[in-house]
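Hey, I'm writing a tutorial for new members on how sequence and structure tokens pair up, and I'd like a real worked example in the thread rather than a made-up one. If someone can provide the structure for the chain below, I'll link this post from the tutorial.
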Amino acid sequence: MKERAAVKKWMGAMVVFLLVGTWLAPSMVDARELARETFDNVAPAPGSEIVPGRDAKGKGWTHTSPGFAVDNPSFIDLPVSFDNTVRRGAISFDLQRKAGDAPTDYRSVFALKDPEGNNLLLFQVTWTSSFDPRFPAIALKGGHYYANSLGLWSPWIVLDREVPPGRWIHVDLTWDDDAKRYNLFVDGRPVDASPKLPDPTAGRILPDPREEINRDLASRNWPPMFFSRPFADLLSRTRLIRLGINSVPEAPGRGTSPLSNAVLSNFVVLVDELPKGLGKSAISSVTDDSFKVAGISGKLVGGDKVNVELVAGAGGKSSFDMGIVKGIPLS
């Protein structure tokens, strides 16, 4: 039976309370799920709160501290152990942009940690990127990841859609080492996550600076500084997934960038398989420039193509009103 550990550090106390309980009833656990956190059995602690999740009866978790640095922060730990043979999988979760006066800087969603507590990979989100404040951005940090992730997801990713306050998005970070495919999907749509640098000062997308550094070193007959290693190499070192805070062993009892700009819900880690339906979201209806997909809603933008398939029952008819969809080609 899988277990989870929810760790809370209470304000003003140095005692760490470890709550251990079952993940789900055995009949509800998918054999391919390495970890799942639905926040159903997580008690709120000072600095965090349990709030409604994306699902009708589901729960979400968020920080209440708007500051960047927090003493004795609340967080949730999920002990994990990735088998060395795990070559593909996905880290998936729902995020809701918080309304009101929420922080605008990068805040931590999760971190993959080694046995010493160092960040192997830190996933952070801001809803207003410095490259284009209309769009959210994702930062993938961690010294090990930065040095060994050429060819994986870019450390700097700007999304291509606005996310207004209060809206939920579903995120899938997927990998397939054998096929050398490392993808990011938001609401089932692929996002360009290939290595590059969105430079707000230059106002354009620049090449990944790590590649230029390697080329310069090669011209001097020096060894490279950055490498492209399978994601399984990083996963094999991972012993813990920490949700909601950035923390390092050098500063015990202290954390930074708490997740107070978003609500986290339905956090799942799949191994040896990928979520179904990615990149194949079917639009069920279009009105003006808005679209509806099961569980998803948003806006079409120029360049999107909508394919309409008409199916009628025996003896019936089907039709589609092309109407006026602002600059969106329909076929």
